[in-house]
Amino acid sequence: MKYKVIPEGTIDGKIMPVTVAFLDVKEIEKSGMTQDEAIIEVGKKEEGPTAINIFDPNAVTTTSDGILAEGAIVRMGASDKGRVNKEFGILPMYHMPYSEELIKKETHMIQWKKLYPDRSLYRGPDPADKKIPVHNVVISGRASNNNSATEMMNIVTMDEVLFPILGQLECLHHGDLLVGYTGETVSVGIGMTIAEKFGRVFPHPQFYAGQTAHGSGAYAKTLKQWIPIIACDKKVIAKLTIRAIECGCVPARDIGCSPVVLSIARAMGTEIDYDNISDKAQEELDSVGCTKEWMHETQHLSKEEVIDNADEILPGIYDGKKHKADELLIEKTI
Fold it and tell me: Is residue 323 within 8 Å of 10, Cβ to Cβ?
C-alpha cells in the first residue's frame, strides 16, 4: 500500500508538530486491508507523533463556512511510537446519504444537489461513535488529530498546525499550498462557520451563517494568529466560493461571512445578506477592516478576474510562501 506524508519538522521555519499521513481508499482496497488496519500499519511505520487521514477522492465534503469540495476525509487516526490507541486513536467520518430534507435545512447544500448529487458526503463524525466528548478528535500518545483531521497538535510540546481541508485536498490534487502563519484575518474567519449536522468542528448545528463561533470581539483576531497553517492556493478557494455563489448561495445567509467569502462577493458585486450578520460577528469583522462600509464598496469584477487576482483580493495568512504540494510530500510503501 502506498501512502504519502508531510513529515514532522519545519517548513520555512514554521513548526510541523506531527507527521501527517495521507491514505487513499483505493490503495487500501487494493492492499486487502481494512481502513482501521491501514491506519494501524501506517502507525507502526511512523515512529513519531502522526496524524493519519484516509481520503475518498470521489466523495464530497464542505469547508467550515459551507463551501463544497471534491474529495473527503472518511476516517482519521493518530499514532505515536508505532502504536494507535485502541480506544481513542481511530474515528470514522459519518457517511451522509443524499437527502432533500437535509438540503432544505442546510441551504448551502444546494451545491450538492446541483453539482454532485450522486457522490457520497462526509464531514465530521457521528457523536455516537465518539469516546472523547466535545471535540471531533483522535489521540494517541503525543499526537492529537482534531476538528475532523484539520488541526494537529503535539500534546507535549503544545505546538499546533492548522491544515484546512482544502489544503489537504490539494495534496491529493497535486496542487499548490500556501504555508505561513494563520494571521489575524484567518483567525477571525475560522469562527464564521455555518450550522451543519455532524459538522467538521461542531457535532450538532450550532452557529448559523452570519454568526460567529468565537464571540470574542477584537480578541478573535489573536486566537490563532501565530499558529502555522498549510492552506490551499488562494485561487482554489476563490474558484470554489464563486461556484457556491453561482449555485445560489449568499454569504451570511447560506454560507459563512468570513473575510475571504465577503471579499469575493464584494469584488464581484454579488449579494451579501448584510442584515443577517450578527453584532458579535460584525465586531470581529470590524477588527480586521471588514466593516459594513467596506462591504458596500463593490468592484463588479468578473469571476475570471477574481480568480486570476486572488492573491491580492483575498486577505489572510501572514508570511506565506507557495509550495508545490508534491515537493513537500514523501511517498512511502507498506
Answer: no
The pTM score is: 0.97
Query: Phi and psi for 17 in degrees, rounded to 5?
Result: -75, -20
Distance (Å, whole) CA 60 – CA 35: 18
Burial grade of 323 (CB within 10 A; 0-12, 13-18, 19 or more) = middle
Residue 249 and residue 261: Cα distance in Å, rounded?
A: 11
What DSSP designation does 9 have?
Answer: E
Q: What is the pLDDT of residues 287-330, one digit of tens each?
A: 999 999 999 999 999 999 999 999 999 999 999 999 999 999 99
Cα 227 off chain centre by = 15
Contacts of 40 (CB under 8 A, 6+ apart): 77, 79, 84
Per-residue pLDDT of 35-58, as tens digits, reads 999 999 999 999 999 999 999 999
- What pLDDT band is residue 111 in, cutting at 50, 70 and 90? very high
Percent of all residues in the chain with a pLDDT value above 70, rounded to a whole number? 100
In the structure grid, which three cell numbers stand for residue 101, read together?
430534507
**181 in helix, strand or coil?**
strand
Q: Measured between alpha carbons, how far is 246 from 320 in angstroms, rounded to an integer? A: 29
Overall average pLDDT of the 121-148 stretch: 96
E-strand spans in the chain? 2-6, 9-11, 14-16, 19-24, 50-62, 68-79, 90-92, 95-96, 121-122, 138-140, 143-146, 151-154, 160-162, 176-181, 228-232, 318-324, 330-333
Report the C-alpha gap between 138 and 131 in whole angstroms: 9
Determine the longest span between alpha carbons in the chain, in angstroms. Answer: 58
Kindly give, in sequence order, each residue whose CB lies less than 8 Å from that of residue 123, ignoring residues fewer than 6 positions away. 61, 62, 72, 93, 94, 96, 148, 196, 198, 199, 200
Say what the alpha-carbon torsion angle 24, 26, 31, 35 is, to the nearest 10 degrees.
60
